[in-house]
Design a protein that fits this description.
By secondary structure, the protein is of the alpha/beta class.
């Protein structure tokens, strides 16, 4: 499916270039109308990122997200600095459908494995952000500033024993660039991990990118900047996905 994405910083929709807070672009959108249109077009789920919360949990944009939850019936998955069980409980109580766990999947992997068991694998998405070097898919954490020795394959293998279901995989070199997605990457991981529902993220700039990604077998495509900049409409994207 197509998953429209919105990143929020200081209450405003924004896109970062390759995760860099210093290289950002704000978008002046009527979010209420935007979400109304997405619902009308048949969008099944939305992806939100709390960039303030990602930097500091105390700065989570709770008020903003309460408003969003109050005026849309579309299920929402949310990420950004989710590090504790209290964070998860807070977001589920607000009404979010799924939480997206990033850095903690590496820094606190035993606890994250327990969360998969406690909340159920359908409620947690692992966000595994990678840099590919010498054919190794190295995971980066903490807003992509710290590279780890863990690979994408290591993480999926580890969490699969607790029935891991959803993985949002981003090729960092593609994020926010509109340079086209890493088709080779998604072909490879879909083939290797047939039990995972992959969400592809990064680089989508036109409808042909959607066709190419659908052909890899990924379950979903997260699209942010292209929709915000009206390179194509959500209606076109959904039709493209359904018709391919």
């Amino acid at each position: 499916m197509i998953i429209p994405a919105f990143d929020f910083l200081e209450g405003k929709a924004v896109r970062l270039y390759q995760g860099n807070y210093l290289d950002k672009k704000f978008y002046n959108i009527d979010l209420y109308q935007h979400l109304k249109d997405l619902k009308k077009q048949g969008v099944k789920i939305i992806h939100l990122v709390d960039l303030n919360g990602a930097k500091k949990a105390e700065n989570r944009q709770i008020k903003l997200f309460q408003n969003i939850i109050s005026y849309t019936k579309i299920p929402i998955q949310i990420g950004g600095g989710i590090r504790t069980e209290n964070d998860i409980n807070t977001l589920f109580k607000l009404g979010f459908e799924r939480v997206v766990i990033g850095s903690s999947a590496i820094t606190n992997k035993f606890e994250v494995k327990r969360w998969l068991k406690v909340y159920g694998s359908n409620k947690i998405v692992l966000a595994l952000d990678i840099n590919i070097m010498n054919n190794k898919k190295k995971i980066s954490i903490n807003g992509w500033v710290k590279e780890t020795n863990y690979t994408l394959e290591d993480a999926i293998d580890y969490f699969s024993s607790e029935h891991l279901q959803h993985v949002l995989c981003t090729d960092i070199s593609k994020d926010g660039t509109l340079s086209g997605p890493n088709i080779t990457l998604y072909k490879e991981i879909v083939k290797k991990f047939k039990h995972i529902q992959f969400q592809a993220s990064g680089g989508v700039s036109n409808l042909s990118d959607i066709i190419s990604l659908k052909q890899t077998g990924v379950n979903s495509i997260i699209i942010g900047r292209s929709l915000l900049e009206k390179r194509f409409t959500i209606k076109e994207a959904l039709e493209c996905w359904q018709n391919e």
